C-alpha cells in the first residue's frame, strides 16, 4: 500500500528509509534569535547610568583625588610633590604599625564574627522555642548608636563595674578590660560584634528563605546530626550569602569602629586599640596633616580590597569543593 504522506523521495524509492531522505540535524537551519529593538538593548544601560554616575562622581573621583593628594606634603610643603615620603613616615610610625597589627587581629577574628550570627540564624530558621522573640532581641543592638553602646559597656566593663563584681563572687580576680593593653582590643571587638551582628543575622535569614527545605528534611530522615546538616547542606547552599556577610562584616570592622574606640578607649591604653580609621582621624583632625591621613586612607583601602578578594576566592573554592 503506497504511503500517502511520505516524503517524495521515499515514494520514489519505494521502501527507502526516511532518515536518508531528511537532512542531518546539523544541516537543519535553526531559527534566528529574535533581536530586540535598539531601545530595548539600550534600556539596561540607561537604567544603571544614574547610579554609575553617582558612584563615579561621589566615590571613584574622590578616591583618585585622595590617592593623588597622598603624594603631596603637609605644612610648609603643602601642595608640593613629595613622592612616597608620607608612606615611609607611615610605616615608620609605631602607632600606625600597631593599627596594622590590629587589622590582622580583626581578620583573624572575622570568622568568629560571621559564625555567631550564622549559627543564631540557623537556630531561628530551625524554629527553636521563642525564635520570633530572639529575632527581635538579636536585631535590637543594631539600631543603637555606637556612642550609646560604648557608654553602656564603659559602665559594664569598668574595673569596679558589675562584670568584675560577678567575677569576684565566682572567685575570679577582676580584669581591667579597658585598661590592659593585652585585653582592651579584644573587649572593643567583642562589643562591636555584639552591637552589629543583628544586621548579618537578617542577611542570613534572607539567605535561608532561598534554601530548599526538602534538603533539610532528607538530611533529618538520613539521621544527620546538626553539625553535619550545617556543614554539608546549609553552608554549600548559602555560599554567596556567606561571601556577602564576610565582606560587609570586614568593611564594618575596619571602618565603623571609630565611635566605640573614641568613647571606650580613645585609642589607649598605650595606643593598643588604634585602628587605621582612628589613626586617620588623629592625623586629619588633631595633627592637621591631611596628606598623611590620605596616605593612611589609601593603605586602608588597599588592605580592604586585598582581604575582600582573598575571602571571596577562598569561599568560592570551598563552595566548588563541596
UniProtKB/TrEMBL annotation:
Signal peptide range in chain numbering: none
Major subcellular site: membrane
CDD domains reported in the protein's UniProt record: TM_PBP2
Keyword annotations of the record: Cell membrane, Membrane, Transmembrane, Transmembrane helix, Transport
Segments passing through the bilayer: 42-61, 103-126, 138-159, 183-211, 244-264, 291-315
Domain ABC transmembrane type-1 intervals: 95-311
InterPro entries with a match to the protein in the record: MetI-like, MetI-like_sf, UgpAE/MalFG_permease
PANTHER family attached to this UniProt entry: BLL4140 PROTEIN
Compartments where located: Cell membrane
GO biological processes: transmembrane transport
Highest taxon in the source lineage: Bacteria
Protein name per Swiss-Prot or TrEMBL: Sugar ABC transporter permease
Pfam families from the UniProt entry: BPD_transp_1
GO cellular component terms listed in the entry, alphabetical order: plasma membrane
Family, similarity comment: Belongs to the binding-protein-dependent transport system permease family.
Topology of the protein relative to the lipid bilayer: Multi-pass membrane protein
Sequence segments annotated as region (Disordered): 1-36
